[in-house]
Structures are given as C-alpha cells and as structure tokens.
Write a structure and sequence with these properties.
alpha/beta; Rossmann fold; 5-stranded parallel beta sheet; 3-stranded antiparallel beta sheet; 8 strands; globular
C-alpha cells in the first residue's frame, strides 16, 4: 500500500516495549528508512572513523556520547537521499535537552510513544536471545525447543549480558529518569500518540498504522 506524504516519525518507549520491531514493520509499510542513533554510533566505530574513535572512548569510559555528536550524525543521516521522503527515528531524543535543540530542524510529523510497565518489560527482555554473529533475535522458548544454533548463520544463540534482570532494571531506571520527561515535553504538541506496547505486535502495528 502506498502512503502519500512525508512521514517523519519518532519512536519513544522503554526497553522491551517493541520499539525496534515496530520500527522495522513501519519502515516496510511506509517505505522509509529506520534510523537508530545506536546503530549510527556502532557504524562509526566499526568503520574506524575519527568520530568513531571518539565515540568508542566515551563508551569505554562509561560516559554518554555528547549531544553534539549524536545531533551531527543524525542531521547528516536524515539528509541522505533515502530519507528525503521521510524516516523513522529510534533512540532520539533521549533527553529533554535533545528534544529542545531538535525543534529547529527535526520537525516530526508524529511522536509515537509505546507504553509498558516494568514488570512486563523485564519478562520480555529476560526471555530474549540473540545470535552472536548475525544478531538474529528469538526467545528462550525457541532455544529450549530447537537448541542454540542460529537458523540463519549457524552461529550461537545466547542471552546477552544487558538482558539479565539486574541490567534491565538499571536501564529502565535510566529511561524513567532521563527519557520519560521527553514524553512530557512532546505532550505540548499535537503530534504525540500513545499506544499500549503490552499488546501483541500485529495489534500495536495496526493501531499505529491507523493514525498515520
């Protein structure tokens, strides 16, 4: 189905809310790229650029990558040819300061908020498993039934350290402290839409698609 007009979407939600999954589905539906600030950082590091070296140093020291670096990467990415008809951003803005600074250049058409409580988020994320090589994502139930060999690349499927309960709760606490206020910031606009992220993936997708 062709979608008319430009869609500049921001997805906000805690870990386990299904942001990444919905971003992938919406990317196919709207025929626009998904842009993850985390992936942009990883790409710079993997390519060994000067910017990547700076980012890697911040990460190694346990520090947040400065807003000016994140903003510069994002501005460059949304100026690429494939983003001229729109884009979906996952992972930005993470702070009110980023949201305020982006007002002059980002101009989202919709801010999609996926809501989920911490208990469900922890349940979902502790069940997650991923391939160490191709990042194929699955669940603990799948591994119990089919073993830990990846069906795509035959690598090993594991539970990542950041999907352990203690690590998940720390990330959720940080989300509530730092990113939750961004939702309050966007409440002042007409672009924000809230969705129940605890519902099934197809149902959440259909509800989002309905408002676009």
């Amino acid at each position: 189905m062709m979608i008319e007009g430009q869609h500049r979407l921001i997805l906000i939600g805690p870990q386990g809310s299904g942001k990444g999954t919905q971003a992938e589905l919406l990317s196919v539906y709207l025929q626009v790229p998904t842009i993850s600030t985390g992936q942009l950082c990883r790409s710079e590091i993997a390519h060994g650029t000067e910017l990547g070296k700076q980012i890697e140093n911040f990460v190694k020291n346990g520090e947040l990558v400065p807003d000016e670096i994140i903003t510069a990467m994002l501005k460059k990415r949304i100026s690429d040819y494939d983003a001229q008809d729109g884009f979906i951003i996952d992972g930005f803005p993470r702070t009110v300061a980023q949201a305020e600074e982006a007002q002059s250049w980002l101009h989202p058409t919709k801010v999609i908020v996926l809501e989920i409580n911490d208990r469900v988020a922890v349940q979902r994320m502790t069940s997650r498993r991923a391939c160490t090589q191709c990042r194929f994502k699955t669940t603990a139930e799948y591994v119990a039934k089919h073993g830990d060999e990846c069906p795509r690349c035959f690598g090993k499927i594991i539970q990542r350290q950041d999907d352990l309960p203690e690590a998940i709760q720390k990330r959720l606490d940080m989300y509530h402290l730092v990113t939750q206020p961004v939702i309050e910031f966007y409440k002042k606009t007409d672009e924000m839409e809230r969705f129940n992220g605890a519902l099934s993936i197809p149902l959440v997708f259909m509800e989002i698609a309905h408002v676009l």
